[in-house]
C-alpha cells in the first residue's frame, strides 16, 4: 500500500517533469481558458442581460471554471492513450509496481495541473471584474469542489484513454462528450431560454449542478426556469457531490480492471 | 538448473485466425544465452512478452526462475529485466530523468537511485547526453538507455527483443560488447534476433523458430552439422577444371559438384584443414594455381534453408558488423 502511493507519486512527478521539459503544454493549457474568459466577457457579456449585480462576469466565471475542469477528461484521456500507444507502457508493466500506479499517478498529475490553471483563471477573472462576495472560506471551498470534480472526471478520461486505440481519436471523442455537456447547461446562458425538454436535461446535467454549486459558493444567485424547485436546482452542492461519488464508483474499478486486462 | 522453461505455448489473435505461437516449447539453462532466431512474424516478440508477463498464453505454461509467469507475475517481475523491440523510455524526459524514475519504481531510495543512474550512464557511455531529452538521442543511444533501464536492479533473467535491429554496424558492435559483458556477469539471457550472425556470435544455444514453432535447436555447431559438415571449395581457370575435379574427388571421396559460371569446384570433406592441404599439394604437383581456395562451414542461412525448405527471405543478412570475434 505504501509502495502503491509512492509509485503513483513517481508517475505524477514524471508528468510534472514532462511539463518542465516542454513548458509550452502548460502555457497553452492556461492561455486557452483565459482566452475563453476574455471572449465571453467582452463578446457575449454585452448582449446577455442578466440583472445580476456585478454584471455577466459574475455568472460567467463559475461556468468557465467548470468547463475548464471538465476538459480534464480530454487531457487525461489523450495523455494516457499516448502512453499506451508506445512501448513505454510495456516497461511500466514489467516493473514490480502496483498496477494502479500508472493511472492513479496520472489523475493526480492532471489535478495538479488544474490547480495552476484555476489559479491563473481566477486572476484573469479578477482583472476583468469578477468579485466573489461570499468570503474567502467559501471561495476556497468552491475551488476545492472544482478540483474534486476535475479529479472524478479524469477517471472517465482514464477509461476513455484505455478504451481507444489512438490518442487523436480519444481527444476528439472526449470533446464530443464535453462540448455538448458544457453548452447544454447553465454555464454560459441561463437555461430559461431553452426549450422545455432541454431545460430538464440542463438542470440535471452535472455541469449545471456544478456551476450552480459554484455560483452559490461565490455568492451569486442562481436562476431557474421550468425546473425551479427540482432537487438539483434546490441542492446543487449535494447533487454535485453525488455525481462525483457516482462517477468515481463506476469508473475507478472499471478503469483499473481495464488496465489490468488491456494486454491480454 | 533451467532459468526459463516454456511448455507448449499457444497464443492466437483475432479469435484464432492468427496463430502467433503454435505449441512452442523452449528452455534456457541458468547463466547461459539462448538466441531465438526467426524471420518477421515468427513469434519472437510474442514469446518474449509471455515470458515477461506482459501477455498471457491461450494455453501452455512457463516459468522464469522457477516462478509461474501466469500465476505469479508480480514475483517474476522482480527478477527479470526486459528490453523490448522498441525502446521503452519516456521520449520527453532526459536520459537521467528516465533512469532515476525507473530506479524509484524499482523502489530504490532517492540517493541509491541517483547513484545507480550515474553508474549505468557511465557504463553505457551516456553520461554526456544524460541531460538531453531522449527525443534527441540516436537509435543506438536510445537502445543503450533502454537496456540500462532494464538492468537497474541487476535482473537474474534478461529478455532482449531484437536488441540490435536498426543499429548501424558500429552500434551493433557496441551492443554486442555490452551484452557479452552482461553474460560474463552471469545473467541468464534470452535474446531474439533476425540476424544469423548475431545468434552465432552471442548465443550458447540457438532455437530457430518459424510460424510459432521451434523447428530446430542446439548449439550453432550442432545446427550446422545438421546441414552437413564443411565443404572444400576451389576456383580455377577453365582449362584446369577437369584435373582439379579429379583431385578433389580423390581427397573428398564424396560427390563433387561444379559451378561452371564461377568455375568453382566443391565437395564435402570430413578432415577439414588436412583435406585442404592435401588438395593444395596435389594441385601444386599438377602445376595448377588455384584462383581461390577455402573451407566453407555452412552458414546459419544454409541451416534455415535446409530446415524450412525455403530461404528465410525476411532474414536480413547482418551488415558487416564485427567480423567474427569468437567469444569466450
Ligand atoms: N495484437 C496482435 N493482433 C493480431 N496479430 C498479432 C498481434 N500481435 C502479433 N500478431 C501476429 O502474431 C504473429 C507473431 O508476431 P510476433 O510479433 O511475435 O513476431 P516477431 O517474430 O516478433 O516478428 P518481428 O521480427 O517482425 O518483430 C505475427 O503473424 C503477427 O502478425
Ligand atoms: Mg518482434
From TrEMBL, chain A:
This is Unannotated protein. It is found in: Membrane. It is a multi-pass membrane protein. One of its GO terms (cellular component) is ATP-binding cassette (ABC) transporter complex. Residues 24-262 form the ABC transmembrane type-2 domain. GO terms for molecular function: ABC-type transporter activity. InterPro entries: ABC2_TM, ABC2_TM_bact-type, ABC_2_transport, Nod_factor_ABC_transporter. The keyword Nucleotide-binding does not apply. The keyword Transmembrane applies. The chain crosses the membrane at residues 25-44, 56-81, 102-128, 140-162, 169-189, 237-256. The lineage of its organism: unclassified sequences, metagenomes, ecological metagenomes.
Amino acid at each position: 500500500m505504501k509502495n502503491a502511493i509512492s509509485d503513483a507519486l513517481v508517475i505524477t512527478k514524471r508528468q510534472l517533469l514532462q511539463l518542465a521539459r516542454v513548458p509550452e503544454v502548460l502555457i497553452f493549457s492556461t492561455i486557452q481558458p483565459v482566452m475563453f474568459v476574455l471572449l465571453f466577457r467582452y463578446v457575449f457579456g454585452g448582449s446577455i442581460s442578466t440583472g445580476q449585480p456585478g454584471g455577466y462576469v459574475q455568472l460567467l466565471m463559475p461556468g468557465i471554471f467548470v468547463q475548464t475542469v471538465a476538459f480534464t477528461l480530454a487531457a487525461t484521456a489523450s495523455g494516457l492513450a499516448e502512453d499506451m500507444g508506445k512501448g513505454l507502457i510495456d516497461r511500466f508493466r514489467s516493473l514490480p509496481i502496483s498496477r494502479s500506479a500508472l493511472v492513479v499517478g496520472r489523475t493526480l498529475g492532471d489535478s495538479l495541473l488544474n490547480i495552476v490553471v484555476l489559479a491563473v483563471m481566477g486572476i484573469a477573472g479578477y482583472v476583468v471584474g469578477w468579485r466573489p462576495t461570499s468570503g474567502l472560506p467559501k471561495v476556497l471551498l468552491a475551488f476545492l469542489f472544482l478540483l474534486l470534480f476535475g479529479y472524478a472526471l479524469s477517471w472517465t478520461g482514464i477509461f476513455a484513454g484505455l478504451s481507444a486505440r489512438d490518442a487523436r481519436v480519444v481527444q476528439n471523442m472526449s470533446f464530443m462528450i464535453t462540448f455538448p455537456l458544457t453548452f447544454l447547461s447553465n454555464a454560459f446562458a441561463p437555461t430559461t431560454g431553452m426549450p422545455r425538454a432541454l431545460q430538464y436535461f440542463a438542470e440535471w446535467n452535472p455541469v449545471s449542478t456544478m456551476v450552480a454549486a459554484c455560483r452559490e459558493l461565490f455568492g451569486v444567485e442562481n436562476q431557474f426556469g421550468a425546473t425551479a424547485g427540482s432537487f438539483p436546482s434546490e441542492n446543487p452542492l449535494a447533487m454535485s457531490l453525488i455525481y462525483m461519488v457516482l462517477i468515481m464508483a463506476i469508473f475507478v474499478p472499471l478503469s483499473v480492471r481495464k488496465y489490468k486486462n488491456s494486454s491480454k | 538448473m533451467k532459468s526459463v522453461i516454456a511448455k507448449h505455448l499457444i497464443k492466437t489473435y483475432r479469435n484464432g485466425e492468427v496463430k502467433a505461437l503454435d505449441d512452442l516449447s523452449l528452455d534456457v539453462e541458468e547463466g547461459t544465452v539462448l538466441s531465438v532466431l526467426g524471420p518477421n512474424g515468427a513469434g519472437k516478440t510474442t514469446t518474449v512478452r509471455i515470458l515477461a508477463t506482459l501477455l498471457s498464453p491461450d494455453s501452455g505454461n512457463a516459468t522464469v526462475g522457477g516462478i509461474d509467469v501466469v500465476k505469479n507475475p508480480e514475483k517474476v517481475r522482480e527478477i527479470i529485466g526486459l528490453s523490448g523491440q522498441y525502446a521503452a523510455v519516456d521520449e520527453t524526459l532526459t536520459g537521467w530523468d528516465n533512469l532515476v524514475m525507473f530506479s524509484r519504481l524499482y523502489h530504490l531510495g532517492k540517493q541509491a537511485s541517483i547513484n545507480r543512474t550515474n553508474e549505468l550512464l557511465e557504463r553505457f557511455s551516456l553520461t554526456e547526453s544524460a541531460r538531453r531529452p531522449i527525443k534527441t538521442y540516436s537509435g543506438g543511444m536510445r537502445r543503450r538507455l533502454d537496456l540500462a533501464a532494464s538492468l537497474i536492479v541487476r535482473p537474474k533473467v534478461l529478455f532482449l527483443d531484437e536488441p540490435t535491429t536498426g543499429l548501424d554496424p558500429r552500434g551493433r558492435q557496441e551492443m554486442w560488447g555490452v551484452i557479452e559483458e552482461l553474460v560474463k556477469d552471469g545473467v541468464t539471457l534470452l535474446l531474439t534476433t533476425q540476424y544469423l550472425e548475431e545468434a552465432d556470435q552471442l548465443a550458447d544455444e540457438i532455437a530457430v523458430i518459424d510460424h510459432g514453432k521451434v523447428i530446430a535447436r542446439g548449439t550453432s555447431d550442432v545446427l550446422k552439422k545438421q546441414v552437413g559438415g564443411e565443404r572444400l571449395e576451389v576456383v580455377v581457370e577453365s582449362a584446369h577444371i577437369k584435373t582439379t575435379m579429379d583431385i578433389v574427388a580423390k581427397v573428398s571421396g564424396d560427390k563433387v559438384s561444379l559451378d561452371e559460371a564461377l568455375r568453382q569446384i566443391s565437395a564435402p570433406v570430413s578432415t577439414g584443414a588436412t583435406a585442404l592441404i592435401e588438395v593444395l599439394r596435389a594441385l601444386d604437383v599438377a602445376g595448377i594455381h588455384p584462383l581461390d581456395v577455402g573451407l566453407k562451414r555452412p552458414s546459419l542461412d544454409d541451416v534455415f534453408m535446409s530446415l524450412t525448405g525455403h530461404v528465410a527471405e525476411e532474414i536480413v543478412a547482418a551488415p558487416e558488423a564485427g567480423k567474427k570475434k569468437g567469444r569466450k
